[in-house]
Each structure stands twice: as structure tokens, then as C-alpha cells.
User: What shape does this take?
Amino acid sequence: MLARTADNLYWLARNIERADYLARIVNVTRRLDTLPSAYSGPGTEWESALLSAGASERFDEFHQNVDAASVIDFLVFDERNPSSIANCIENGRSNARAVRTALTVESWEAINSGWLDLKSFQKPRSPGDPASSERLGQYLDAVMKVALDVDGSAYRTMLRNDAFWFTRLGHFVERADNTARILDVKYNLLLPSSEPVGGPVDYFQWAAILRAVSALTAYNWLYKEGVKPWLVADLLILRPEMPRSLRFCCGEMVRVLDSFARVYGQQGPAQRHARHMLTRLENTTMKEVFNGGLHEFVTAFIEDNSKLGAEIAEQYLLD
Amino acid sequence: MTAFFNEMMRPGGTVRPAYARIADWLERTPPEVLASRRAQAELMFRRIGITFAVYGDKEASERLIPFDIAPRVLTRSEWTRLEAGLIQRVKALNLFLNDVYGAGAIMRAGIVPSDIIYRNPAYRPEMAGWSVPHDVYAHIAGIDVVRIDENDFYVLEDNARTPSGVSYMLENREVMMRLLPDLFSAHSVAPIETYPNELLASLRSVAPRSASRDPTIALLTPGQYNSAYYEHSFLADKLGIELVEGRDLLVRDDIVYMRTTQGPRRVDVIYRRLDDDFLDPLVFRPDSALGVPGLMSAYRAGNVTLANAVGAGVADDKAVYTYMPEIIKFYLGEAPLLKNVPTWRCREPDALKYVMEHLAELVVKEVNGSGGYGMLVGPHSTRDQIEAFSKKLAHDPANYIAQPTLALSVCPASFSGGVSPRHVDLRPFVLSGADGARVVPGGLTRVALNEGSLVVNSSQGGGTKDTWVIDDPATA
Assistant: This one.
């Protein structure tokens, strides 16, 4: 397979997954924003949305104040933000178009018609206007639907060969990164200093995170008790059955990379590195994570994961 | 106004035997059924050809080229004559290109003036003095032909660079077989589905002699913003070869490789859909980001075959066109089987004088123009347009040729208002390999859908039709 084809498939999946994640971040932040400020903390929720999107620095280049309207516009529509939802969808569709023949008709139509639908949405004028707010909600729903369609059509229709595996690889590298980021942001930023850990604000915020990643029901099912930070972290880091957990993502990356090694007849740093990441997660307990500091753990993971991304690019995508 | 040759109806109102079943079908099918067939055809194109609509168009506006459901019919004996003429012509084109970049015998014999060759922008001095693999220059040629009467085919122009449209030919057939299976099976239509196989065989046959027995072939495209990108990806898919862009290729020690997920892999034959100018920034346009540095050097070292060959465009020039009958005689010692449209070469003073006096009746074309640009269609132009054009012509007469407006034949086309005749042309695709030349029976019929129009270009109301080569009717 052409390295450029592989690169486009990999980034198609990353772009779509990122768009989905951003839509979820914006959704959950809107939810937090509806709380009385005593519950939601001192107005830092949009700040934290920017941080969990990794868009803080870029935002500051264009805006003085962090407020709902400008953050939403920046994260969702702004063309100057290379990772805005609109740009992710645009780039994902352009990746797909460049490798049209490597996709099935269904996969191509999923991304292309999603792209067309989203383009036809009117950009909401002001977030205070209920019509605008409703339209924004519809837009974000449509974005998540595109991700579902693209993912589902690939899963249902693509041959299980390197083309499919590159989309899976992009999907899980991006997903692992997103999960880690959302955990980190919560731990460091949201809680007002006056609030006790485990208090109502804390509860609401952790629940919001679970909601953002569609994991609240899963949480209730697995733990059968109130939302506790260490259990949320357990769910999103160590649980092998949770399809967003770092452990699950690493397991999938190892599986896909092993497929490459088998079919291509050789393995490299990416395989060894992914296996190492998985082993570490398998041999860690939540207690160890919290003793060493969740922030430290998550930061190390994000670095590790982006190193894996670089190794994948080096091994398969660049030459 | 002259009467046009109607391929279905004779002047007295009788139907030509080749069209007997088509005429019957058009007459007996209720308008609402025809309407629903037209709607189905459009739907099928949107579905199977959905990518037509979105490739090459940033805003993905619907860009379906209109398709007419009434097939255009040629009988086997008509086709056999046409085929022989096409093969003769393409053989001569290849011999001519060999000569132009080799000994130059035709110029020394005084048959083609040498300035027409050497001052031609499509002439590539880099190609002079060496032979391309297997002496084939125009591997894929699109020869545009028209009929003006029962007997003769006229060649309108030769396309020896990177002729496009073959994907429409193949998809039109696909749609017709699904749309009108009964009408289709009532005629024994010669298949064209073998085109991708034939193309692949031709490309394999011209691999450099140093290549392995299973040569690697790739299709080089300018990329997804090119208007023919759909066709490039369609063909790569059908041929089962990689669709590469310039940046996917690299040249090391005069060998071409493509970058794959398993490292560099050698490429032996490149079916390039990229113009000469952009192929290699080290030799041609230095600002080309679409090409491959070092490609020409690998080509000249004999390590890769480019199809079509660099410099093949010198043969499809409109000034060279006027010499085609002489070119065929010179190399093959045969009389040309296909006619040339009578042409005035404005470089010749007598011809120029005639053209200047008859601009309102003639079609005047730039010798290097294509796609209908830079031309004057006398009968359809205003006095001011003719005035302005005559100044351009007087300034640089050698850059122009003139032809009478041709009475292109008409075929039935189906519209909501009923069936009515429209002008058509035909582009068959001639393949040349080390093992000779071949043509799949048929080609792309383009039809001017606007009433009375002679312009078949899709940008100006042109559409396409499926082209059927059928066995001769028993009673002719």
C-alpha cells in the first residue's frame, strides 16, 4: 500500500474521532454552564474546555476573553483553529477523497454525505438566542452521527486488510489521547479551591465527564455506587471492557500493530512500544496511579502515546 | 441549411435497418416509461457514479454529465471499416513520432515542413536521438471522428497526449445494461468491458526490457483537484494498479520507486495523466510540485516506460493534422482509410486570403488549442467577434487553421418533449503496445443536447450516449 494512502486513512480516522470528541466536550461544557455558578465553579468551564481540546494557546492569539460565545465559535466553526470541528470534518473528508478507492462505497458515502449535511448547517448567531442554541445542539448531534456512521460503515464493510487497520490505528491513537486529556483537565482545573473533593460540585463535574464520553450508564452498571473520582479514573484508565479506556485503546493498538507485523513479515519500534504501554496498564492498580499522582500519570501517558504516533508515522506513513 | 445525415431515419422517413429495433422501441414505449427510464439512469449515475458529482469540484455541486438513454448504433461492417482506419492512423502516428525524434526522414523528404515540428511547443528536444521502449509513443490515442453521410468517417482531431473520457464509455454501458436489459439483449452488442484488460496488457507489453516478468504499473495523477481525477481513480481501480501522485514516487540511481508502507517499491511502467510540462521539475517546469525530480533521467536510462511518451503531443497538433493523409502514405504506403476534414493552413498565403474572406462560414482553430478554447465558429459569431478574431489571425497566421462548419450526423435523443435528433461525434480509444494496436468496439459518443447545436463539449450543453456495435441486420 502507498504510504500516502496509509497516511490518509490514518488521519481520516483521527480527524473524525477528534471531531466527535470536540462535539462531546462542547456539549458537556454547555451542560456545566447551565448550573448556578456556585455549583459549576468560578466560570472556568470554558477555559477547561479549551484546555481539554488542546486549543488554549491558539485561542489566546485571537481572543481577549474566555466566554461561551467565543469558545464555542473557536472550537466548533473557526477556520483559524486547525482543530475546530469544521476543520476536522473538512480534513477528514479530504483525506477520504484522496484515497477514495481504498474505501468502500459505504464508508465514502458516510463521510461525504456527513460533510455535505454539516456544510448546509447555518452557523448559529449568538449563543444566548434559543434558536441558535438549538441549532448548535443539532449540529453537534450531527457531528457525532457522522463519527458513528463512518466508524460503523468501516466496521461493517471494509476488508480486513492494511487499509482497515490503518483506520483502526488512527481511531485508537486519537481516542486514547482524548480520554487522557479529559481526565487531566478535570483533575487539575475544574474544582474551585473552596470546594471539598467529593462535594456536590465535584460530583457534578465527574458525572459530566462520564456523560461526555457516554459512560454514565456503564459506570452505574459496573460500580453500582455514587460517582467517585478514583472509580471514574478506574473506568477510563484501567477497565479492559470500557471502549474508551486507555487500557482498551492500547489493547486494540497492539492487536492492529501485530496484524501489520504478521502480514508485512516484520515489526519495529511501534510494535514494541505499544506492547510496553499495554503491559504497564495491565500491571498497574488505581492505588498506584493515585499515589504517583493522576496528573503525572496522565501526562506521561499522553507523551507516550504521541511518541507511539511518531513511531507509526516513521515506520509506515512517511516512507 | 444543408440536410444532416440522420443515422436513424432516411430522408423519405424510412428507418435505416441498423436502427430498426431502436426506432420501434422509441415509438412503442409510452412517454412516461421513457421518462422513468431517464430518471432511473440519472439515479444510477448518481449512485454508481456518485463520485462524478464530487470529484474535481471543491463544493461538490452535482456535476453529472447528462446521459441520453437512446443508444447510438454502428453496424459491424461500419465498425470494421472504422476500426481498420483507426488502427492505420495510430500506426502512422507512432511511426511519425519515431521519425520526428529519430532520423527525421519525413522532414528531409519535404513532406512535413520542419518548422511545424521544431517550433511546436509540444516538441521535446529531450526526446531526440533515442528510442522509447518498444518504439511506442502514443499508447492510448483518442481519435475524434464524425459522420456526415452513409459512407465516410471523418477524423476531426487526433488526441495523442492523455485523452480522457473512457470512464464514461464504460459506465454508460454499465448503466444501459441495467436500465434496458431487453433492448440490449435484442441486439447482439459487441462488449467493451474488456477495455481495462486490454489497457493493462498494452501497458505490460511496453515495460522496459530490464523489468521483471511481472512489471509494476502505476497511474500518475495530478491529484484530487484535477477535473479528470474521477477517471484516474476509476481506471486505477479497474486495472488493479496504484494511483500515485508525484510525491509518492522517488528516483534513486535512475530507478523509479513508489513509497509504500513496506518501503520503496520499484515501478516499471507509469500510465501518466499528467502533462509533459509538469513531469519532472529538473527538466521541464521547475515550479512543478506535481512531478517527480529525476523521472526524465530514469526514463532516458530505459528503466521506466511512460505512457504516453513524453513529446507525443507533437503529433496531435492541428497543423500536423492537416498532413495526416501524407503521413499515412509516407510510412505505410497506403491510402488513408479515414478522411481528414478539408483544412486551410493559414500559414499559406493563398489559404489565409481565402479564410479572411470567408470567416463567417468557417471554424478557425489555434493549432495548439484544445477543448474548444481560442476558436472562432463563424456562423455562430457576431460581426464584432469576427472583426476581433481577424486581427488575431492577421497578426499570427501560422498559429491557425480553418475548416468548413461540418454537417455532423444526428441521432435520436430522448427528452421530456419527445424524441428528437441531435448532433453527435465519436471518440474511440486506440491502444498500442509492443504487440500491436487494438480498439474495443465502440467509443464515447458525445451529443450536443441543445437543439441545433454542433458543440458536444460537456461545458456547453453536451452529453453522452452508449455506443453499440451490432451485427449487421440480415436485410440491409
The mean pLDDT of chain A is 88. The CA atoms of residues 187 and 295 of chain A lie 7 Å apart. Residues 1-157 of chain A form one domain.
